[in-house]
Amino acid sequence: MTLLLARTSSARYRIGALRLRTLIGLIVGLSLIAGGSAHESIPTAADLAIVGAKIYPAPDSEPINDGVVLVRGGKIVGVGPRRQISVPRGVRLIDARGSVLTAGFWNSHVHLMTPSLLGATAAKAETLQGGLETMLTRWGFTTIFDIASSTENAIALRHRVETGDITGPMILTVGDPFYPKGGTPFYVREYLRAHGAPNEEVSTPEEAAARAARQLDNGTDGVKIFAGAVVGGKIGVLPMPIDIAKAIVDEAHRRKVPAFAHPANLAGLNVAIESGVDILAHTTAMDGGDPGGWSPELIARLRAHDMALIPTMMLFEVEAKKFHESPNDLANAISVITAEVKNYAGAGGRILFGTDVGYIDVFDPTEEYKLMSGALDWRAILTSLTTAPAERFGYISRKGRIANGMDADLVLLNGDPAKDPTAFARVRDTIRAGRVIWGADR
Fold it and tell me: pLDDT per residue over 22-77, tens digit each?
């Protein structure tokens, strides 16, 4: 098909399948898990009780009707039906009758590149916070993985959130991405020039490994390679040489952090597989591939490497409009990627939720939920938002579920996703560490 299929199948940076980071759980008081993180020292709110919600404690759990969640010191200290939970006096009450409560959402594919999030070292706090709210916390995201932006800016933004200067999600980042020599994608060249970005192409394994080490030393949480870079013209998609890709991925794995890959097409998928990438940043509308999507043989190869997949299905629609694709081409592309997501999940492949927001300027994820529901049931979508990324990125002991000792990262919804998956986008309150950072009860 056209550049849409090349761009969206190569579509962005891949995420690692490692269970990163050694977390030290400290048992405190009421059996709370302290679980300190280098990236989480935000202020916590006063004690809190959320009362009356229908609670989905985890994707595989039965709901708790008319439930109560108690929060103390940013941790969950009680969860259950109202008849079993005594609400202490003096705590802040949120009347959640008619709402649904889940664990806080992860968006595992974002880019901190929008104008309101740039210049984070010196920008006004209200500008940065407004940008985070509009793009992320408004939609329930309490943790995000930025998989390609400026290393310096992403770390500065994270610092301002952690110190309490602004409120926002927990930020993980890969910093600057890695392109093959001559492989800066056509669709970001103008943006990079306009913002004075450095050349992010690498031409030797030694150069690539050294830059990966520098970025990780500076505080990034993973790497992202363009296994297939969409350069346009006669070349179309330029694969990254295997030895360079492997040098970058090996450096990430040596630090026990994940490697993401933007595949673009079958050649890019092969680079990702052979270099040991952990997470595919997009599915692919295969060039010359099976009209039903990835073949069983390809799925078996991906599963053998325990790769996770971020579908970014809405991206295909956004790009179709940008590049004036025909309705028929778009319908075919959506059919292919829906089959790929469904078949990969059916084979046991891990799906992570991500929207590519920051590259695309459609912040509302409703369409992503709608498209994903063509391949996954609502529980699988909830898994992609909560327990799957928490496990993949090493935070499963603290995040992803509503249970005693877990971080009080929560989302109140004005709708039940069991009845309509787009209800995941109807956010009433976003709560991080027991603090309402966006919503009606802030």
Answer: 332 333 333 333 334 456 666 666 799 999 999 999 999 999 999 999 999 999 99
Quick one: pLDDT band at residue 285, thresholds 50, 70, 90? confident
**For residue 1, what pLDDT band results from cuts at 50, 70 and 90?**
very low
Token reading at 324: 């004036």
Per the CB < 8 A criterion, the answer to whether 208 and 169 are in contact is: no
Please calculate the CA angle 138-140-141 and round it to the nearest 5 degrees. Answer: 100
Q: Of 421, 418, 285, which is closest to residue 366 (Cα–Cα)?
A: 421
Q: For residues 343 and 207, give the distance between their C-alpha atoms in angstroms, rounded to a whole number.
A: 38
Please list the helix, strand and coil fractions of the chain in percent, rounded to the nearest 5, in that order: 35, 20, 45
Residue 51, helix vs strand vs coil: strand
> How many C-beta atoms surround the C-beta of residue 193 within 10 A?
10
Q: Helix 205-217 to helix 242-254 angle, to the nearest 10 degrees?
A: 30
**Residue located via tokens 């929060």:** 71
| Cβ density class 56-86: b for 16+ within 10 Å, e for less | bbbbeeeebeebbbbbbbbbbbbbeeeeebe
